[in-house]
Amino acid sequence: MGEEVEVVDVPDANRYEARIGGEPAGFAQYVRSPTVVAFLHTEVDPAYEGRGVGSALARAGLDAERAAGHQVVPVCPFVAGWIRKHPEYQALVYDEESAVSD
What we know:
This protein is 24% helix and 34% strand. The protein is built from two helices and five strands, in the order E-E-E-E-H-E-H. A hairpin with a 4-residue loop joins strand 1 (5-10) and strand 2 (15-20).
């Protein structure tokens, strides 16, 4: 089908970036606190639409945040929808009611 989508975290830009063949293909913007990450916006370059870039961004970002022990707030409609379609990621979603308060 083509080249593989590579996703890297770029903390200085507050986003995960997707690249295909070294070229930028899309990004998922976030805001990170010590324990929670809010995914704000996902964008795929029109030239790369239909090649799984958005899904690769969602999966890689969520996998990285799970590995770091973070919860997520899917503000971005794409990431929220992706989580609904992949229930194995539902446990990552921040639940205000179960959060510990001081």
